[in-house]
């Protein structure tokens, strides 16, 4: 397939545009690979946040608190709505988002302190919400695993959304939580097309591996679901029935979907990705996105931003509901148990265990 411009091997962004708060652009020089362009390396930076549980008041989200061990995400998903959050750090939402990863090294310790505090009331914490807790660097740093150990110690319910098979590494802690109905894991599968996924989500697990993760987690008694997220109108929406069938066959219990969101500069970045990787379908996809966003490329209104509006959005919603019911999957919600909660051990007494 002929591409309109060079692309960057192993990365989802095709550029590193200036952040909306910055005055200077950072431009990567070409290295002679006219077709693939440069290969910027991933750099890990320390995040010295004093707290790790973030509170939100969004009425269309099923959780109040979330935990994100990493800021930025090396998966490099071209469509990721979280990309613009990197601009608050002085970075670009483009290549910087997937190559400048901030690491919360003290996250497990801080989580233990917050769950042990008398003011904490047991409730489900979303482990993700912004970036993936099981991105590639987690294999080495194990921050998410150690946070799960804290959740298991406290028996505080946790819900995980990930695109990485690596979550199966932590079946031991997840099983401990599952014994008291205090965990759920959702694998995000926007497409089963391996070629498309390799360009759209270059460092996430192969779609087949995500289905395998559903199978492994389900076989271990861990409540598991699938998220078709995002649905990209005109590009991936036709895959919804097949994704749900495959997930159900692997043991998924529930399913949900989220419509593509393109906040701030992500609109231009995603259009660049389309014209670089799917130039023959770019206009159709952009037109369909406008169809579900009332003529725009994004909508931030509560209740509409996750589903879209209009006839085409309604058709996608109906397709999803029919496919979900046919596959025997429940809606996305899974009620988790808070009754088994106990304050986690802290301080010197930890040495006794």
Roughly how many Å is the radius of gyration? 20 Å
The largest β sheet comes out as: 7 strands, mixed
Overall helicity = 25-40%
Q: Which word captures the global form?
A: globular
- Strand content of the residues, in percent? 5-15%
Order of strands across the biggest sheet? 2-3-6-7-8-9-10
| Alpha plus pi helix count | 11
Mean pLDDT: 91
Description:
The chain is α/β, with parallel strands linked by helices and 353 residues long. It has 11 helices and 10 strands. The protein has helices spanning 95-99, 107-116, 138-141, 143-154, 171-178, 194-200, 207-219, 240-250, 266-277, 282-292, 311-327, and strands spanning 43-46, 53-55, 65-67, 70-71, 100-103, 125-127, 158-162, 183-188, 224-231, 254-259. The strands form 2 sheets. The protein has a 7-stranded mixed β-sheet, with helices on one face. The longest helix is centred in the C-terminal third of the chain and has 17 residues, at 311-327. The radius of gyration is 20 Å and the shape is globular. 47% of the residues are buried.
């Amino acid at each position: 397939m002929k591409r309109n411009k060079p692309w960057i091997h192993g990365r989802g962004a095709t550029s590193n545009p200036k952040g909306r708060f910055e005055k200077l652009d950072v431009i990567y020089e070409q290295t002679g690979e006219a077709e693939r362009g440069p290969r910027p390396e991933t750099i890990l930076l320390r995040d010295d946040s004093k707290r790790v549980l973030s509170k939100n008041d969004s009425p269309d989200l099923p959780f109040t608190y979330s935990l994100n061990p990493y800021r930025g995400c090396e998966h490099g998903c071209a469509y990721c709505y979280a990309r613009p959050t990197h601009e608050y750090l002085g970075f670009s939402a483009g290549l910087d988002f997937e190559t400048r990863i901030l690491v919360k090294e003290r996250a497990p310790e801080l989580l233990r302190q917050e769950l042990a505090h008398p003011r904490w009331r047991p409730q489900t914490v979303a482990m993700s919400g912004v970036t993936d807790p099981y991105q590639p660097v987690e294999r080495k740093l194990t921050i998410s695993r150690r946070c799960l150990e804290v959740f298991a110690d406290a028996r505080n319910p946790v819900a995980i959304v990930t695109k990485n098979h690596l979550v199966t590494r932590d079946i031991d802690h997840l099983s401990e939580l599952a014994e008291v109905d205090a965990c759920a894991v959702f694998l995000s599968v926007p497409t089963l097309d391996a070629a498309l996924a390799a360009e759209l989500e270059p460092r996430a697990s192969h779609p087949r591996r995500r289905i395998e993760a559903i199978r492994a987690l389900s076989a271990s008694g861990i409540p598991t679901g699938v998220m078709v997220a995002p649905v990209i109108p005109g590009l991936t929406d036709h895959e919804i029935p097949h994704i749900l069938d495959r997930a159900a066959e692997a043991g998924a219990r529930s399913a949900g979907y989220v419509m593509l969101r393109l906040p701030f500069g992500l609109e231009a970045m995603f259009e660049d990705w389309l014209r670089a990787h799917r130039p023959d379908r770019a206009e159709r996809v952009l037109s369909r996105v406008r169809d579900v966003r009332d003529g725009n490329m994004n909508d931030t209104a509560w209740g509409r931003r996750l589903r879209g509006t209009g006839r085409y959005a309604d058709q996608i919603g109906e397709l999803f509901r029919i496919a979900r019911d046919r596959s025997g999957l429940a809606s996305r919600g899974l009620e988790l148990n808070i009754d088994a909660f106990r304050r986690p051990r802290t301080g010197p007494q930890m040495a006794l265990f």
